[in-house]
Amino acid sequence: MGAIIDAAFSRSRTVLMVLAVLLIAGAVSYYSIPKESEPDIAVPLIYVSMTHEGISPEDAERLLIRPMETELRSIEGVKEVRAVGSSGYASVTLEFQPGFNAEKALRDVREKVDIAKTKLPADTDEPTVNEVNVALFPILSVILSGDMSERQLVTLARRLKDDIEGLPGVLEVEIGGDREELLEVEIDPLALETYNISVDELFQFVDRNNRLVAAGAIEAAAGRFVVKVPGVIEDIRDVLKLPIKVSGATVVRFEDIATIRRTFKDPQGFARVDGRSAVALEIKKRLGANIIETVESVRSIVAEHEKTWPGTVSASFMQDKSKDIQEMLSDLQNNVVSAILLVMVVVIAALGLRSALLVGLAIPGSFLAGILILNAMGMTLNIVVLFSLILVVGMLVDGAIVVIELADRQRALGHSARDAYSHAAKRMFWPVVASTATTLSVFFPLLFWPDMVGEFMKFLPITVIATLGASLFMALVFVPVLGAAISGKSRPKVADKPMPGEGDSDPLELRGFTGRYARFLDPMLARPGRTLLVAIAALIGAYTAYGMFGKGVEFFPSTEPKFAQVQVQARGDMSVFEKDAIVRRVSKDIVGMKEMRTVYARTMGVQPGGGSELSEDVIGVIQLEFVDWDKRRKASAILDDIVARTADIPGIRVVA
Q1: CB burial class (10 A; 0-12, 13-18, 19+) of residue 125?
Q2: Among 77, 207, 513, 624, which residue carries the largest CB count within 10 Å?
Q3: Burial class for 242, CB neighbours closer than 10 Å (0-12, 13-18, 19+)
């Protein structure tokens, strides 16, 4: 190992250049590495959705679920199969073993669905196969609200969607509350009777004239010509001018016997923001895209569109995950700066300004090198990585302090800077390596943490190993070489008498803290067996005491939330309009509270798209976005107040 250190000191300029390149590359990686809130992990869930309009829950189980389950159960690696049947909808959810091959599982499910769909009723819509992917959850919701017609609001949302989907970091945009358009036909029965046309004949005629005809091509000596038969109805004019009956020179067209107007399908629910009608755009980012840059680009496009909108329309933002990332990055930067300053204060007091600068360099150097490694591995900067970086701040300088302190002692004895730092690096090589290895040995087993939690938390040991590994090179190579380069001439040689605590001096005779520590340690070293037993007893006692008096264990600590959800529950066969009237009354009481930044209310009608985990008696969900925690009451007090405010509404139950 000494040869490696000697080679580094003999090529000090090259080493310092490598250090500079490493710091620059790490800084570039820090700004370019994809940033997201939660880690992108493979969730072992795939579900198949089936819709059949008007089917009862019992028939959905018998005709949809059972044929699909029969085929899906034979897929390899399936841990559990769950199914849900409701009015007009059925779904089958497959849970796979942890560590499954997501691509293979998705391919196997699609193959089995293709086989099973031949056994489904003829009127059942095409089954859809969906995977649960954390990366595909919305990173931002843009809510358009205003006092205008639904068609105008949806038109503005669609234009905005087209521009947002053009951003390189955006995968797709879904519009919540965008009902499917259709043509509503009002037939004049007197006109049908006059022209002797039955309703069935009318339907069959329209159906036969709205078909794609593959006519092929004609090949002749002059060339090959594709034959096109226009038969698909594209807009309302095609329907109005459709000839229904010909009698001599008289042509009866569709517009002669019916009135047609554009409208939407019957609503399945309603959405409102702060009491006003709303349409929500849910933005999903591409895998590996920078969440902060993507959200900034989306906000910029929304701001441009707002300039052209009527004054009654406004845009608000909810579930902005980029804010969490920015706050965490800010906390990380503050922790790094604070750590460097505190280390420099302590080291300046003990070793001097030059040593403090060298030790302080180890923190950002290790961080940037670690982030460079993470970026090269294709990982993202997420909440677990940031927590890991903050966790290791205090561990990064241990080796550098030991090496620099010994080098200063050698220089105090008159050795040259090169010899002092080279000797310190060689002398402390194995102690520093052993110290770092003992820390890494604690985190290394976490790489093999099983199940979903392991997939989520594996970023922690990878980050710790990368940064602590980088700190090893900083302490033994880069910092000593840099110290020798900036130290200049050696100090005058001190007399040959040993330094305090060295040579033949007795540590028990020393004064101050060092002497007291030596005298405290001396009887323990004289009785190692008893000391070990006391340590083991203390360890067992600590675990026992926590088991008896501790507060228990939880995966994540409870913190003051930024968002909350209120459910409005009621029973009875109510229409979606009746449900909406109740939800509007509840949300009206909430909108007036000053602690609310945004109140987003959704009325739950019949959900043919299914998959909802809400109970059947939930008629509405109100999502609340609070103002900053330091400007309001605690969330629990606010939710209790909401329940009290809505207690006078009969026939419902508000759960906050």
Answers
A1: middle
A2: 624
A3: middle
